[in-house]
Write a structure and sequence with these properties.
Blueprint: H1 2-7, H2 10-37, E1 44-45, H3 54-64, E2 67-73, E3 85-89, E4 95-96, E5 101-106, E6 113-115, H4 124-134, E7 137-149, E8 152-157, E9 160-162, E10 167-169, E11 173-179
Parallel strand pairs: 2-5, 7-11
Antiparallel strand pairs: 1-4, 3-5, 6-10, 8-9, 8-11
Length: 189
């Protein structure tokens, strides 16, 4: 019975009311502090950095009071200038806070180099598939008098025979020299 009297007493109710008031005041003060320190409601629009050089990006980001981080370069894209921005995150025209980092992907200076696969003594059809798989393409196909019809005997680039493992820029066209199925002129005595 004394516990119920204590809970319903004026002293206990005053203490509860003061505790609730203190919590409400503390929450209001914290919310105001957070609003001031986080610049609540203040945003900056992310500029469009597509096709901009890093020098231009630096100037634009300084004016916008934003930071940037170059993540990496990607596969070469001929639609963009060399060493320019291909992608950005967050994207253009998004609202962000001042000082936010914008992550950039840069276009490299050119296609990366790939190794020519060993297509010697492989059929023309298989050689084309193997070359395409590494990013090279077949331009011209020349035939010579050799017994293996459509068998690759040489790979040429710029008129010179190249060996497997030779490094060429991706998307380069190579020439295949294949046999036409005729015997080479060999004299038998």
């Amino acid at each position: 019975m004394s516990f119920i009297k204590f809970i319903t007493s004026k002293t206990f109710l005053k203490q509860i009311a003061l505790a609730i008031l203190a919590v409400v005041v503390l929450v209001i003060l914290i919310m105001q502090y957070l609003k001031v320190t986080t610049n609540h409601g203040e945003f900056v629009l992310v500029p469009d950095l597509s096709k901009k050089s890093l020098r231009e990006v630096e100037e634009i980001m300084e004016k916008a009071d934003l930071n940037y981080v170059v993540l990496d370069s990607t596969n070469y894209n001929p639609d963009y200038p060399r060493f320019s921005v291909i992608e950005q995150d967050p994207s253009a025209n998004k609202e962000v806070k001042e000082g936010r980092k914008i992550y950039l992907t840069i276009n490299p200076s050119g296609y990366r180099k790939v190794s020519v696969p060993n297509v010697i003594q492989v059929t023309k059809r298989n050689a084309e598939s193997m070359l395409k798989a590494v990013g090279l393409s077949v331009g011209k196909v020349t035939y010579v008098n050799e017994i293996g019809k459509d068998m690759v005997y040489y790979v040429r680039y710029e008129g010179k025979n190249i060996l497997p493992g030779h490094q060429l820029p991706k998307t380069t066209e190579v020439e295949l020299v294949c046999g036409n199925g005729n015997r080479a002129n060999v004299s038998v005595e």
